[in-house]
Amino acid sequence: MADAKQTLIEAVRQQTAMANTRMLVDKLNEHCFERCVASPTTSLGSAETSCVKNCIGKYVNSWDTVSKQYAGHIQRKTRLLGQ
């Protein structure tokens, strides 16, 4: 029974990670592309490429910070509930 529970927990974690990744990519496309590419063509200019890279870098760093803080919060709550 413990193995089945652990398998289910891992499956939920993986699905959550995939959903979060999809959400991040959607937000990057929505936010960075709209901000950096005024009129889309078949390729990006150097200024557009630089803008997209910088925007994505900032967004991913922010996402990483928030995710780590949230994970820490969940771990603390889990420990408190387990006591």
Examine the secondary-structure arrangement and name the CATH architecture: Orthogonal Bundle
Residues in helix, %: over 70%
Task: Please mark out the parts with pLDDT under 50 across 5 or more consecutive residues, or reply none.
Answer: none
Oligomeric state of shown chains: single chain
Shape: elongated
Question: Helical segment tally?
Answer: 2
Number of strands: 0
* Percentage beta strand: under 5%
Summarize model confidence as the mean pLDDT.
87
Count of separate structural domains = 1
The whole-angstrom Rg is 19 Å
Order of helices and strands: HH
| The CATH C-level class name | Mainly Alpha
**Could you tell me how far the N terminus lies from the C terminus, measured between alpha carbons in angstroms?**
23 Å
**For the report, how would you describe the main beta sheet?**
none
Reported by name, the CATH topology is Helix Hairpins
Q: Considering the protein shown, what is the CATH homologous superfamily?
A: Mitochondrial import inner membrane translocase subunit tim13 like domains
Overall SS class: mainly alpha
Protein name: Mitochondrial import inner membrane translocase subunit
Organism: Piedraia hortae CBS 480.64
Family: Belongs to the small Tim family.
Keywords: Chaperone, Disulfide bond, Membrane, Mitochondrion, Mitochondrion inner membrane, Protein transport, Translocation, Transport
